[in-house]
From TrEMBL:
<keyword id="KW-0804">Transcription</keyword>
<keyword id="KW-0238">DNA-binding</keyword>
<keyword id="KW-0805">Transcription regulation</keyword>
<feature type="domain" description="HTH hxlR-type">
    <location>
        <begin position="17"/>
        <end position="116"/>
    </location>
</feature>
<dbReference type="InterPro" id="IPR036388">
    <property type="entry name" value="WH-like_DNA-bd_sf"/>
</dbReference>
<dbReference type="InterPro" id="IPR002577">
    <property type="entry name" value="HTH_HxlR"/>
</dbReference>
<dbReference type="Pfam" id="PF01638">
    <property type="entry name" value="HxlR"/>
</dbReference>
<dbReference type="InterPro" id="IPR036390">
    <property type="entry name" value="WH_DNA-bd_sf"/>
</dbReference>
<protein>
    <submittedName>
        <fullName>Winged helix-turn-helix transcriptional regulator</fullName>
    </submittedName>
</protein>
Length: 127
């Protein structure tokens, strides 16, 4: 397997990676609200802001707004102004990302016992 980055990782390597926007996308899809909104839009179809707000308990309007803007900026969600409201929909790009995110979630569920054990061993070493 070829390395993702050359070793050692230099400041120039980090800078060139940051210039691609990859870190921003990874940060966005790592947020729990982004994933939930993508799933809601995939499963429930295009939705207005208020419907999205009601669909995810505990999600503030401010965070929903910020999350939708990030998803739209990165092409994962589209925004369409209708007569009296705005409608959001998952894009083909967003739909193509979801299986990867879901796979990571499934991996985490499958390996939860091993992760829990590793955390316990780590914490016991700190005491």
């Amino acid at each position: 397997m070829s390395p993702v980055v050359p070793l050692p990782v230099t400041a120039a390597d980090r800078s060139s990676c940051a210039a691609t926007g990859v870190p921003d996308v990874l940060r966005l899809v790592g947020e729990k609200w982004s994933v939930l909104i993508l799933v809601v839009l995939r499963d429930g179809g295009p939705s207005g802001f208020n419907r999205l707000h009601r669909a995810v308990e505990g999600l503030s309007r401010r965070i929903l707004t910020r999350t939708l803007r990030g998803l739209e900026e990165n092409g994962l969600v589209s925004r369409r102004a209708a007569d009296s409201h705005v409608e959001y929909a998952i894009t083909a790009l967003g739909a193509s990302l979801l299986p990867l995110i879901i796979a990571v979630g499934e991996w985490a569920v499958e390996h939860e016992p091993a992760i829990t054990d590793a955390r316990a061993r780590y914490r016991s070493r700190l005491r």
